[in-house]
Amino acid sequence: RNLLDRDTFSKSDPICVLYTQAIGNKEWREFGRTEVIDNTLNPDFVRKFIMDYFFEERENLRFDFYDVDSKSPNLSKHDFLGQMFCTLGEIVGSQGSRLEKTIVGIPGKKCGTVIVTAEELGCCRDSVLMQFCANKLDKKDFFGKSDPFLVFHRSNEDGSFTICHKTEVVKNTLNPVWQAFKISVRALCNGDYDRTIKVEVYDWDRDGSHDFIGEFTTSYRELSRGQSQFNVYEVINPKKKGKKKKYVNSGTVTLLSFLIETEVSFLDYIKGGTQINFTVAIDFTASNGNPSQPTSLHYMNPYQLNAYGMALRAVGEIIQDYDSDKMFPALGFGARLPPDGRVSHEFALNGNPQNPYCHGIDGVMEAYYRSLKSVQLYGPTNFAPVINHVARYAASVKDGSQYFVLLIITDGVISDMAQTKESIVNASKLPMSIIIVGVGPAEFDAMEELDGDVVRISSRGKFAERDIVQFVPFRDYIDRSGNHVLSMARLAKDVLAEIPEQFLSYMRVRGIKPSPAPPPYTPPIHVLQTQI
């Protein structure tokens, strides 16, 4: 909207070029270009960019705009109209997955705005519930009737077939009715509605040498017509057909029902306005070492972040894209506070217990450094108070409009294991997840136990309703070469990868459906130019 006008006699002829950034060397690579739209300052580009989206990765994007003056593919031959930087998370995390941002890059000039919308590709998420029966199948067994079952295959690009489903065996009948089964559209036909699906009918034999009765082919598009005369298939045995002149078929298979179910995704909720609230809790216990010493895990090195700062930034910079107000509560535990030296296990890093919110990740970092100067590291290491702190908020909004993520960064020597387990079991019923990053050289056996990936965590005989804790040791990610960018991207990826599934498991158990997204943006009619 309102692009710069660079042409003397007519309006600009804009094109948009999208770049993505490599994580390690920060190099920008061209991802693709839209079409050119002639003679307009308010283009609505049609060409879409299809990208892979991962909640747990930060994908930096750059949109460059040019006024195209000739047929040359070389961008330096055209007039630069400005650029916009954002992350893929920012776009999908915006209300309705629609982001509007100012175009920058030409000093002293207003370059207009760009509106980017994202949508998740839908064909990949459907699954189908279908049921078949058969009539008058060939009798294959000497003593009884046949014991038929079906085998489904999807076809591949090269013409080969891959097995994707087997029904159960129905014993001793030539007119079986199989149970309904559910299969993802991806598995059935790779999302391609016209691709061949081959179905084979066999007679089951105990020794595994199942007898082939016959086969037929169909496609998702045919099956989707549901129960009808189109979905009665003749089962053909090519060998018999070749030998016997009077051969008609080896029976028929009929589709009884076909129901499409769309799986809702994490992004459906985000698009419908669910907010992710991010809270940080930092371990200020004496076992971390004196912050003024270089050996301390809290050492304030003027030249680079310490482990706490690195972990905080790695995780926070990705989650902040899903939190519209970018205000994060930041807490500390295990320190003595001024003025009277009382020990606290949930104090506000910014010194304001009424309002522990910090603005953005930078605000959290600032409050963390300020606290280090004012509090005295002490002990013991109690997790339960900060978990209960976030749980109180999570308990007040159970309607699916908000989800809470607590990041605990700790040197790992936990003092209140029983209380923490109890807190986690209670929190597993709430819309929240807990990420624990262990820094320093300690043994983290207790943290592994809290993680619950191997054995689901329990307290007083009650098991956690869902697995909500993800633990990683920071030392596994330290890059010997000193390249922290890549190692922190890996850390974030590993701690955040489980969040969408934990989020969905909460919504599923509670039967919460995504809110409808706000209506899509429609441009006013009069700016639409025709492309000649």
Observed structural traits:
calcium-dependent phospholipid binding, 29% strand, 532 residues, metal-binding, repeat, Rossmann fold, four-stranded antiparallel sheet, Immunoglobulin-like, metal ion binding
Summarize the entry for a quick read.
The chain is α+β, with helices and mostly antiparallel strands and 532 residues long. Helices cover 21% and strands 29% of the residues.
Number of domains: 3
* Main β-sheet description: 7 strands, mixed
Terminal Cα span: 21 Å
Topology-level CATH name of the largest domain: Rossmann fold
Q: Look at the structure and give the CATH class of the largest domain.
A: Alpha Beta
CATH architecture name of the largest domain = 3-Layer(aba) Sandwich
The named CATH superfamily of the largest domain: von Willebrand factor, type A domain
Rounded radius of gyration (Å): 30 Å
Assembly context of the chains: single chain
Decide which structural class fits the backbone: alpha+beta
Structural commentary:
- The chain is α+β, with helices and mostly antiparallel strands.
- The chain folds into three domains: 14-117, Immunoglobulin-like (Sandwich); 126-262, Immunoglobulin-like, CATH 2.60.40.150; 275-510, 3-Layer(aba) Sandwich (Rossmann fold).
- It is built from twelve helices and 26 strands.
- It has helices at 88-93, 185-189, 220-223, 238-243, 266-271, 307-319, 360-374, 384-396, 417-427, 445-451, 484-496, 499-510; strands spanning 14-21, 28-33, 60-67, 79-87, 98-102, 113-117, 126-135, 148-155, 161-166, 181-184, 196-203, 211-219, 232-234, 252-262, 275-283, 327-333, 335-337, 342-344, 347-348, 357-359, 376-377, 402-410, 432-438, 458-459, 462-463, 469-473.
- The strands form seven sheets. Strands 15, 16, 19, 20, 22, 23 and 26 form a seven-stranded mixed beta sheet that branches.
- A hairpin with a 2-residue loop joins strand 24 and strand 25.
- Helix 6 packs across helix 11 (484-496) and helix 8 (384-396) packs parallel to helix 9.
- The two termini are 21 Å apart.
- Mean pLDDT is 92; it is low at 526-532.
- One of its GO terms (biological process) is cellular response to calcium ion.
- Residues 277-478 form the VWFA domain.
- Pfam families: C2, Copine.
- Keywords: Calcium, Metal-binding, Repeat.
- InterPro entries: C2_dom, C2_domain_sf, C2B_Copine, Copine, Copine_C, VWF_A, vWFA_dom_sf.
